[in-house]
Every structure is written in structure tokens, then in C-alpha cells.
Design goal:
alpha/beta; 2 domains; eight-stranded parallel beta barrel; three-stranded antiparallel beta sheet; 15 strands; about 20% strand
Amino acid sequence: MELVCPAGNISMLKAAAEHGADAIYIGFKDDTNARHFAGLNFQDGAAQKAVNYAHDHGSQVYVAINTYPQPTGWSRWQKAVDVAADIGVDALIVADIGVLAYAAEKYPHLALHLSVQGSATNAEALRFYQQQFAIRRAVIPRVLSMAQVKRLAEDSPVKLEVFGFGSLCVMVEGRCLLSSYATGESPNTCGACSPAKAVRWVETPAGTESRLNEVLIDRFAVGEKAGYPVVCKGRFNVDGHTYHALEEPTSLNTLALLPELLAAGVSAIKIEGRQRSTAYITKVVKVWREAIDSCQSNPQSYAAKAQWMQALADVSEGTQTTLGAYNRPWQ
């Protein structure tokens, strides 16, 4: 089972490689990837250095080119594919069928992984991508129960990668409209949820307000820790009560499910968080490296250690974790 870790800069990439990541995924400094934030990602030269460093330390590098091109920007997505192939990455993570077709035709030797942004949740969809573009792996959206993941693994024509840890939101990957509603931009098209240019922090007598354009997201009292200014995790007044009406900030943590995922034949565990810090990736990779090695060596006696759970809780959104849809009791 492969451990796939995020890197938003060279420091994070080095930390991931040095602490046991089997593969590290990165993006370029433009809207061709779904973490297009200021200060994140790699220019051509930096990306080449990142690939060289990772390979020297036994890690593979995947490049996320997983947004949906707008008609006026197609050449940027072509260039991203060309650059990734030129610097010797090990796989591309792609969602759009036009980008998949371009990459498959021009670089047939280069491995293609279907991005979670492709939002494929059944074997028939995966078979289509495998037959048309020869994808070798698919990242599964965080909306399936454990039983559904097992059934999909039985029928899938390609290897499956699932999310193991990281922040959650209400987005069904590839289909979020909340950020678009408030700002006109979303991860799917422009690479960023709640883009920084739309965020406003306003001091008022009632507290610090966070706004996305003119949409009031939340209000924080003096000394209260402010949350990330996104629509889905704001607190809103509904029927006279102010609370997290859509979703409370939390992070997915599937350490306890590792034996089931391993038995189901899941090939890779993905860690979320290219926008996080080097300290975050160091702590998370250490825990998951130890957990996967422990599970693979003896799955029958495996149990998630309390110190692992505490370490992950410390870097989780809202300092709390959940099994999310994996533990969903309904169908």
C-alpha cells in the first residue's frame, strides 16, 4: 500500500521524502491545479529540483493538473502536461477528458491517474477512463461508505487510491458550487476555493467578521480562534440559532480502517494538505508511515495507537477527526 503525500513547496517535499512518503504530489504555479494559492506550488525549475530530490530519496512525484480548462486558457494545460513530462514526473493526476486525451496521445509512456476531481464512483466510469485514456489509477471521492469502497475495489479495472487523512468539506469532488456562488471562482475552474482576493476581515463592535465578497461567513469574539473563510464552514443564523449550518470544521482520519482498506485491495492512501505547513507534513507522514508498515507486517494485530490519533488530532481542522462517509450507516 503506497503512501501519497502533499507538497506545496520544496520544504514540504523534502520533509515528505525524508520521512517515508512513497509518492509526493505537487502542482505548478497557475490555475492548472486545484490548490492555486499565492505562495504555493512550483515553477518549472523548482519542479525539476523537486523531482530530482524526491527520486534521490526513493520517492515518486505526481503532478496534479486537475482543474477544468476554460476555453481561453487551453494552452496552459497543454504546457503543464508538456513540462511535467519533460522533467520526468512519475504520473499525472488529471480530471478533464480533454487533458487526459492530450496527455495519453502525446505521452503514452506517462502514467495517468484520474483525479478525485473526476468524481468517478463506479466501475463503469472507471472502465471508460481506462479504455479511452489507459489510466492506471483512480482517486476515489470521499463520498463512499466502506462497503461501497470494497465493492468498487472488486470490480475496478484500475488501482484505487483513497483519502486517508485531511480536511473535509461538503464538496462532492468536482461539483462544488458554493465558492462559485460567492466569488465566481472555484477549485474546479480557477484552482482555488474562496480565493484570497475575495476574502475580507472586518473589525466590528460585535467581533471580527469574515466575509467572502459581501457574504458574511462568520463572526469571532475577542480571543476566539478564527476559522477558514469558506462558505461551507461558516456559522449562520437559522431559525434564531447561530451555528455551523452546513458543516462543522473537521478532518478525515482513517487510521482505524487500514486493515479493511488493505484487505479490500486499495493500492494507495492519500494525505490531503498542499496548503499546510512543513511541520504538518512531517508529523502526518511519520504517523502514517509507521501505521502502514505496522498494518502490512501484521494486519490481524494492527490497532491505531493512541499517540498516533492524538498527533493527527492536533493538526486537524477544529482539532477533531471523523471517519466521514466511510462509516456512513445509510445507503
